[in-house]
Amino acid sequence: MTVQERMKIPPQDMPQQDPHVRAHNMNEVALGYTAEMAKTEASRCMNCPAKPCMNGCPVAVNIPGFLAKAAEGDFAGALAIIRETSLLPAVCGRVCPQEKQCQKFCTMGKLLKDQSKAVAIGRVERFCADFVRASGEQAKTDVLPPTGKRVAIVGSGPASITCAADCARAGHEVTVFEAFHKPGGVLVYGIPEFRLPKAIVSEEIDGLKKLGVKIETNFVAGRTRKVRDFLDKDGFDAVFVGSGAGLPKFMGIEGENLIGVFSANEYLTRANLMKAYDESHADTPFWHGKRVVVLGGGNVAMDASRMALRLGAEAVYLVYRRGANEMPARAEEVEHAKEEGVEFHLLQNAKRILGDENARVTGIECLKYELGEPDASGRRSPVAIEGSEFTIPCDTVIVAVGNGSNPLIASTTDGLDVDKRGHIVTDGNGRTSVKGVNAGGDIVLGAATVILAMGEGRRAAASINADLRG
Amino acid sequence: MNKILEKRQLSANVWRMKLEAPLIARERKAGQFVIVQVVEEFGERIPLTIGNASAEEGWIEIIFQTVGETTMKLSRREVGEYLPAVTGPLGRPTDITNYSKDGKKGWVVVVGGGIGVAPSHPIVQAFRAAGNRVTMIMGARTKELIIMEEEMRKAADEVVIVTDDGSYGRKCLVTEPLKEFCELPEKPDEVVIIGPPIMMKFAALATKPYGVKTIASLNSIMIDGTGMCGGCRVTVGGQTKFVCVDGPEFDAHQVDFDNFIKRLGSFKKEEADHKCRSGLFAN
To answer: Among A149, A379, B75, B269, which residue has the fewest nearby CB atoms (within 10 Å)?
Structure first.
């Protein structure tokens, strides 16, 4: 095929549930390509010499390589190529912000002068992972002979899952310690079912078990056992800390402790992990918000607002102090949220939360904002417009303005250096200031993405494996 | 999975259970708690304070009241059965100070209301072991609800028992003997209060005029117990704190008890609906 012929292949749209239907169910929004669609979309890749997509990928997956296999219909071959680099293709194909990564630089998008017409790399990746899973083919589990060395992994989110897999493959005895009753970390408590089915996360965890990894749930490293004691008393030769960014930020405004104000973490944990949406079965109480305000503009804010719709809210308002261009959320999530009926209030921010005599939320008082000079993040900073106060009546406020580092590990591990934001300091390859202790993922980077966490997990595992060999 | 080793009913709604939990028992210090789930898939996570524990024998004890769905389910589990999830020890341990000076022992008063006596026990023991003289004030509505008297008399130097209805001990609230102690020329060096929030509120108000250091152990609603959700937040000294990781103990004179008490009632309506369905009738 010539380049011109490839340019004429129509980009394959992702079949989706109708917005008005899906806003009331927990099923996955994106229904997935058919095999034909996957082949067609993959064949739009012209295998350009520069391969800018690989540069855009935080872990440099061999994208043209897997697309070529997919274009032939060899989906298992495509998945094998992806798995050389990425251990979580079913997850990343769904949640990666491809429009900011691989797809942003795609040559096909440039030729068509429309980056939204880049090859849909993420959708093809997702198809390959789902196809192979559905066909019952097992991922290869080549494990080196036992080394007799033991590795403790703290947390069971993407960074930890990845590090555990690489260490287990190197022949080490790996135990994962998870604080919750279910492993998966943010994949299970944070990202909702309609974006990432929990059955997929379960399969990734099962994959770990097949590699011989032990998983201890209801174990809070730092409290149930100190990290240093893993090394000094329990016979572990290395520790990886993947405890994540789970410390919800609040705005520090008046009324934040009224009844009906939740961090997005709490709101999503009750709904996702504790299944509060299933009222006939779940014991965890479920907050019946009818008019919900969500504060924030990232993926978590989108998740919380769309969850609120599914939990029966009649109106959901997303309040964000900057404009559409500055929103950090994935473009697809913003679009889906709008389609489902979330009302966007941009260039507005909450000044204080109002309540009644029973301390229950009745509304938020907002200010209008405009954009000023760029701040440290490079985005134009929001400036409040004096005297522009107005009120949005509501009964629920969900605060989704970011997560900081949970301080538990740092505060209970002597000598573990952290920066002023509580992120564990590493040498760039996961080694921390304590010999034998490595770290990666959100606890090092600050709240980021699954794929970055995975890259961190792989780098840290490489360091651990090298250190345990030497 | 944690096996139920012993189970005893102390009164109509109060139960005492010993759970096999060697890892928790090994690390646990006075003042800490656990998060318990009674049912695996759809169960709720609830915080319960740890009473006694034995690292050598690998068990912890919990004393709880059946106030809702999960505590009701918990009370129906039998010896030999397993609880799917008991996580801990959580929270900051009690700050144990030896206030003794110049040959005179320090004096700590611990006030336990209702089942607040259970977590008080290891705290009393710890303060005494540190070298202080410890007085225990135990209060309950009626005689039937006074628990662990014998154990407290062994643990503390002095025990004062009060009941609302006078059916046992002195007929008054815990604030009476507490105020009397604060009025002595040698006031207590520290007061620790554990019990129903309204009791803690008034006990804190009682000691405030005397400037006696007073610590309250708060029992907010929790979900994860590790600081990742903020469901347990409370206002202390005008700042937001998480009970599960900054607490559970705070300077009682700084705690906004009114907001704390209201937040505890966040799900009253949902809990009432649940009670009707599960056979617990609201009282």
So the answer is: B269
> Residue A139 pLDDT > 80, yes or no?
no
Domain hosting A59: range is 3-134
**CA angle at residue A182 from A180 to A186, to 5 degrees?**
75
Q: What is the pLDDT of residue B280?
A: 53
Question: What ipTM was estimated for this complex?
Answer: 0.91
* Nearest beta carbon to residue B229 from set A266, A278, A358: A266
Q: Is the CB of B240 less than 8 angstroms away from the CB of A257?
A: yes
The amino acid sitting at A242 is G
| Tens digit of each residue's pLDDT (9 = 90 or more) over A238-263 | 999 999 988 999 999 999 999 999 99
The answer to whether residue A242 is domain-embedded is: yes
Of A248, A285, A287, the CB nearest to B229: A248
Enumerate residue ranges in chain B where pLDDT < 50: 282-283
> Quick check: is B267 in a domain?
no
Q: Which SS3 state, helix, strand or coil, does residue B107 take?
A: strand
* Greatest Cα-to-Cα distance within chain B, rounded to the nearest angstrom: 61
Confidence check: pLDDT of A329 > 70: yes
A213-232: pLDDT as tens digits: 999 999 999 999 999 999 99
Domain stops at, among B60, B90, B120: B90
| Structure-token match 């078990």, residue found | A209
- Take residue A29 and report the two structure tokens written for it: 């929004």
Q: Evaluate whether residue B281 is within a structural domain.
A: no
For residues A205 and A103, state if they share a domain: no
Count how many Cα atoms sit within 13 Å of the Cα of residue A123 in the half-sphere of its side chain: 28
A204 and A258 both lie in a single domain:
no
What residues of chain A lie within 8 A of the CB of B89, using their CB?
A: 223-224
B45 DSSP 8-state letter: P
Mark out the alpha helices in chain B (DSSP H runs): 22-27, 69-75, 117-129, 149-155, 175-183, 197-207, 257-264, 268-278
Backbone angles phi, psi at A160, to 5 degrees: -70, -40
DSSP state of A308: H
